[in-house]
From TrEMBL:
Membrane-crossing residue ranges in chain numbering: 334-357
Residues of the Fibronectin type-III domain: 38-129, 235-333
PROSITE patterns: FN3 (PS50853)
Signal peptide: 1-26
Membrane topology of the entry: Single-pass type I membrane protein
Protein known as: Interleukin 13 receptor subunit alpha 1
Assigned keywords, A-Z: Glycoprotein, Membrane, Receptor, Signal, Transmembrane, Transmembrane helix
UniProt similarity note: Belongs to the type I cytokine receptor family. Type 5 subfamily.
Lineage: Eukaryota, Metazoa, Chordata, Craniata, Vertebrata
GO CC, alphabetical: external side of plasma membrane
Compartmental location: Membrane
Molecular functions per Gene Ontology: cytokine receptor activity
Top-rank taxon: Eukaryota
Amino acid sequence: MGATVGPGARHLLALTLCLAAGTVEPDGRTAGKKVLPPPSSLHYSFGQLCKLKWTWSPPEGISSVCDLRYCSEIETNGIQEKYTEWTKNLFREADVSLNEEVHFRVRSECRSDNKSEQSDWMEISTAPRGAAGTEAVDINCTWHNLEYMSCTWLPGQNASASTNYRLYYWYEGLGSPQQCQANISEDYFKCIFKLSIPNATEIYPTISILIRDDLEEIRPVCANKNPTTIVKPGPPRNVTVSKTNSGLTIEWQNPGNFPPNCLLYKVELKDSKSNPIRPLEVRKFTYTRFPSVEPDTIYTIKVKAKPARDCYNSDLWSDWSEEKSIGEKTDSTFYIVLILTVPLIVAVATVILLGYLKRLKILIYPQIPDPRKIIKRMFGEQNEDCQNCPGDDFLNIYIPVKEEEIHSLVWIETPENSTSENKDQRSPALQVKAM
C-alpha cells in the first residue's frame, strides 16, 4: 500500500521545485538568472550636414572573458529600417532626414562559452525642428556633363512667400560643407554648384544635400544623391557630315570629360521629302555611316548621348546637338516666281500699250476746236481781266490823265455870185480850225 501525501507535504514539494527552477519573469527570463546591463550614457550629435551620430558607453560590471557586442536599430516615423547593425564600436553614424522623427535604440550582448546573454534596449529620439509643412519638397538634382550639379525644389505649402531657402552640400573628400545661394526661377527654387570628381574614382561618394533657412523657422530637409544615377551628358560637340560615294559619314566628339566607351549615342536623320529615317543607335563610337542617300534631297542630322550602364546607372539623355544639313534640292522657287511674274508683266504691258495708243490717236486725229467755245473763252477772259482791274486807290498809284485835243468845225457857204469856176462845186467847203 502506498504512502499518502498530505496537503502540507504537497505545498513543501512545490516550493522546493520553484526554488530549484527559478521564478519566470514576464519577459521570459527567470528571476534567478543574472541579467546583462544595457549600455549607458547614450546621446546623439549632428555630424556633416545630414549625418547623425549616436554614442554610448559599455555596461558596468562586465567580465573580462565576455565578448561584448552591440546591436542597434533606427526607426524613422515609426518605420524600422531593415538593416540591424552588430558592432564592437561604441558609436554609429547614419544619414537621416531631419524633417522626420528618428528613434534610435541599442543593446549589449555578451558571448562566452558558446552562450549568449543580451541586455535590455537603451532608446533615444530626435524630434524635427521648424514648423511642419515648411520644408522644401520635390527635390531633384542632375549632374550635368560631370562638371556641375543643378538642384531644384518647390517651397513647402506652409512656407511664407518671403522664405529664403539655402542649400548646403557635402561629400566625402570635400572637407567642410559648402553653401549654394538659391535663385527663384518662375515658381520653383534653383541652385547650381560646381561638382567635379576624378574619373579614376571607382566608387563615387554620396552627395548630401541639406535645404534650410538661416533662422531655422522652416523645417530642414535632407536628400542623399548617388551621382552616378543622375548623370546627364552635354550634347555631342563638333558634328560634321560629309558625302562619300553614295552615302553619308557623320562624325562628332565626346561632349565632356567622360571616360572612353562610357557613352551611347543616337543619331537622327531626316530628309527634305518628309520621309523620316529611323534613329540609329551607336554604341561607344563617335562616328557612323548611312550607306545610301537619294539625289536632289537635303538631309538634316543631329546627335545626342546617354551614359552607358557599365559606367553609370543614369537613364538621362543629353539634349540634341546642333542640326547639320547636307545635299541639294531642285529649287522650284524660280518656276513659281516665273509663273506669277509673267501674267503681271503682260498686264502691265497691256495697260502701257493702251495708254500709248490713245496718245497716238490724238496725234494722228487731232480734235477740231469749237469756235463758240473759243469766242466764249476769249470774252470770258476779257471780263475776268476787267473785273480784276485794280481800283483808283489801288496801292495809291497816281495815273495821270491825258488831255484830249479839241478841234472846232466851221461850216462855210459859198456865195451865189461866185465865179463860174466855182458854180459846179455844189458841196459846201469844210474848214477845220484848230482851237
